[in-house]
Amino acid sequence: MTEHVEGKLLIIGGAEDKKNECKILKRFVQESGGRESRITVLTAATEYPLQVGTEYHSLFLELGAQEVQVLDVLDRTQANRQGIERELEKSTGVFFTGGDQLRITGLLGGTLLGRMLEQLYEQGVIIAGTSAGASVMSDTMIVGGEAGTAKKDTLTMAPGLGLLRSVVIDQHFAQRGRIGRLLSAISQNPYVLGVGIDEDTAILVQSDARFSVVGTNTVTVVDASSSTTTNVSETTPGQALVLSPILMHVLSDGYGFDLKRRVSLL
Amino acid sequence: MTEHVEGKLLIIGGAEDKKNECKILKRFVQESGGRESRITVLTAATEYPLQVGTEYHSLFLELGAQEVQVLDVLDRTQANRQGIERELEKSTGVFFTGGDQLRITGLLGGTLLGRMLEQLYEQGVIIAGTSAGASVMSDTMIVGGEAGTAKKDTLTMAPGLGLLRSVVIDQHFAQRGRIGRLLSAISQNPYVLGVGIDEDTAILVQSDARFSVVGTNTVTVVDASSSTTTNVSETTPGQALVLSPILMHVLSDGYGFDLKRRVSLL
């Protein structure tokens, strides 16, 4: 098990700026090829695909994309429809909207569309996602859990898309007070690195497993791999957690992190 | 500058249980001498001294204290009144209620009452405080600052009572999402240890500078003393923070920490 990165990911903590500088979305268009980009917006996560799809469609065109298509799949049959590969194959950037992360994996996992996405990713096409679309990037994802104190077994997890391995992502991180639930997640397997991404903030992950931070707030990395003291195997569910020591890194725009060496970069 | 502890402190993150097991308040009565205890409740922090004072008065008697007095000071003249030392000198435990931490230091700092408290503390009398009464324990205290993302210079600090040196306390910690502001505080001087105490949770600090956790939630210690990467001296106020690496320890009931060696204890 190692931090496995094939291609390029832009993982956004939700509520990215869509009105002013649009720094994150602009970066996505650039990384997709700028004036040559052909972007596919996947609205699987949201219950309002038309509204959300239209918004990103206009935005990406305004930000200089050459072509934008919105692809909505309502069920697995649609995600398996003949020819869907051809609808995607020319994409130079794929964008997952927010909504419910289980809708993404439930609709796409194991389908033709799902496999096509993996292929694009392996070819170096940038895959971006915001909010729920951020959570799905990892092999195991957080799907629910309360804010507040770190407690044992009070969060729910599920298999994600697996584009980023040995990492758990949480979004709307500082805004919703989610450090406790991210710590609960990594306490279950301290090998896994926790990455909490604030609103209007993103990590741009490169194929060398290094990421840089883009946006106005912070990214918090928690690494419990060398922790010696924990009560995870002893306590009953719902009990307050013990985990010590944990290495934490708080990073903001322009700073970076090496997911393999687990150190921050200037 | 070293973690300086003279006597015994019970520092409570606010909202301690007053209806059921009353684990923390019971522990305070025990540490004050149990059936032989003479407890003084200081209501300086609150704007409702009668109500709050009466509540703790009844509670400590119910929990087995021998004697409980409530001491309210409305202004510095009262905190300097002749004979106030005698009202306090037989106390075996002192308890600061919640409210506004600046009321405590503003009313008591440099007065006869303030000096008497220090004396009691040096004699080994336990000094307890909840919420605002917890924040005042350290030499520099947090008096304000928003929840959410760790940002530079967006919190306000003031000199505390100085019973615990080189530490900054924050209370209602996980419940109010305060990790960001605690990190902002320690980024200003990474030598200072940050201790975030959740509601219905306390640390019992002994004169050897070790503490143990009492209560239902967690205590989070953040130690940035070995951080190598930060933007504190570069960024403009309000900008998102960079601080890496930080050592973090999440502890719950029965676990402990050595403030001098900065390691958790089983």
Please characterize this protein's 3D structure.
The structure is a homodimer of 266-residue chains. Chain A is 24% helix and 29% strand. Chain A starts with 8 loop residues before the first strand and ends with a strand. The radius of gyration of chain A is 18 Å and the shape is globular. Chain A has 266 residues and is α/β, with parallel strands linked by helices. Chain A has eight helices and 16 strands. Chains A and B meet through helix 8 and strand 14 of A and helix 8 and strand 14 of B.
Q: Helices and strands in order, then pairings?
A:
The structure is a homodimer.
Chain A (H helix, E strand, L loop, with lengths): L8 E4 L10 H9 L6 E5 L6 H14 L4 E5 L4 H4 L4 H5 L4 E4 L4 H8 L3 H11 L3 E5 L1 H4 L4 E6 L9 E5 L7 E4 L8 H10 L4 E5 L3 E5 L4 E6 L2 E6 L5 E2 L12 E10 L3 E3 L4 E3 L1
Parallel strand pairs in A: 1-5, 2-3, 2-4, 4-5, 8-9
Antiparallel strand pairs in A: 1-10, 6-7, 9-12, 10-11, 11-15, 12-14, 13-14, 15-16
**Spatial order of strands in the largest sheet of chain A:** 3-2-4-5-1-10-11-15-16
Low-confidence stretches of chain A: none
Looking at the chains present, what oligomeric state does this protein adopt? homodimer
Q: Tell me the β content of chain A.
A: 25-35%
**pLDDT average of chain A, as an integer?**
95
Strand-pairing-aware structural class of chain A? alpha/beta
Count of runs of 4 or more consecutive helical residues of chain A: 8
